[in-house]
Amino acid sequence: MEKLRKKRAAERRKREEAMKINFPYPPTMDSVNRFFVDNVSLSDELLSCGDIDGSAYYLAAALVGSGQTQECVEALRSTIPPELYNALLQKFPEMKLQFEMEIAKVKARYDRNRHTEHVLFDEAYD
């Protein structure tokens, strides 16, 4: 029984890792454009396979990661299937929160590294 629990936990972690979005940071025009195109392509691929939730997940990531707003989501209403639009409405706020948390972690890591470099630099000349 314990082996089965461990196996399921490992599979769940693997699925979660596969669904992890690597938002472009620092955001350059090229990295944001590439991120947008890659995630829209994944969304289209999943939609063609009938995976509405997966498609909405990657479409939300593309929109959030490229700085689009809720108004942009609403503008898509007439261009995407209704079930995808409804799923996107649910995923967009979740993805926006995930994006904000991820960027905050990256900034904190950058600030820590920058502080460490200054400390090491200052110690070298004391």
TrEMBL record:
Transmembrane segments: none annotated. The keyword Cell inner membrane does not apply. Keywords: Membrane, Mitochondrion, Mitochondrion outer membrane, Transmembrane, Transmembrane helix. This is Uncharacterized protein. The keyword Ribonucleoprotein does not apply. SUPFAM superfamilies: Mitochondrial import receptor subunit Tom20 (SSF47157). It holds the Pfam family MAS20. One of its GO terms (molecular function) is mitochondrion targeting sequence binding. It is found in: Mitochondrion outer membrane. It is a single-pass membrane protein. One of its GO terms (cellular component) is mitochondrial outer membrane translocase complex. InterPro entries: MAS20, MAS20_rcpt_metazoan, Tom20_dom_sf. GO terms for biological process: intracellular protein transport; protein import into mitochondrial matrix; protein targeting; tRNA import into mitochondrion. Belongs to the Tom20 family. Its main location: mitochondrion.
